[in-house]
């Protein structure tokens, strides 16, 4: 009986189900902040503890993207107006964001 061993390592950062056209659409509408929001949502949705498609977007991760809280807020408004996401605000807390499923991910 032999055991399977793999010499390949999993990447340190993994973003689940990222679609180039969705990312491009978010970036076109809201610039770098839109791309950062999309990537962060998809990253958090890929976590094993994630449930129900809603993620809390704090400012700490966006500092690494060089996106200020003001630009993040403006981008959320633009993306919500385009119907690409929905979010809820609570006083003193980061927004809760849910991505809309608006783009068909056909592989044809």
Compact description:
Helices cover 42% and strands 10% of the residues.
Detail the topology: elements first, then pairings.
Elements (H helix, E strand, L loop, with lengths): L19 H26 L8 E3 L2 H6 L4 H13 L3 E4 L7 E4 L9
Antiparallel strand pairs: 1-3, 2-3
Helix pairs in contact: 1-3
Strand content: 5-15%
Rg calculated over all Cα atoms? 16 Å
Structurally, the number of domains stands at: 1
Q: What does the largest sheet look like?
A: 3 strands, antiparallel
How is the largest sheet built, in terms of strand order?
A: 1-3-2
Task: Give the CA-based shape.
Answer: globular
What is the element string, with H for helices and E for strands? HEHHEE
* Class by SSE composition: mainly alpha
Distance between the termini: 42 Å
Q: Indicate the low-confidence ranges by residue numbers.
A: 104-108
DSSP E strands, number: 3
The CATH architecture is Orthogonal Bundle
Q: Portion of residues in helices?
A: 40-55%
Overall pLDDT confidence: 83
The first-level CATH class is given as Mainly Alpha
């Amino acid at each position: 009986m032999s055991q399977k061993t793999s010499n390949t390592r999993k990447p340190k950062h993994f973003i689940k189900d990222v679609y180039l056209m969705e990312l491009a659409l978010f970036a076109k509408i809201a610039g770098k902040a839109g791309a950062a929001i999309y990537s962060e949502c998809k990253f958090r949705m890929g976590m094993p503890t994630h449930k129900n498609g809603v993620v809390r977007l704090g400012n700490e991760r966006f500092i690494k993207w060089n996106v200020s809280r003001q630009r993040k807020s403006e981008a959320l408004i633009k993306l919500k107006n385009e119907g690409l996401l929905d979010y809820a605000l609570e006083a003193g807390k980061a927004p809760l964001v849910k991505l809309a499923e608006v783009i068909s991910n056909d592989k044809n």
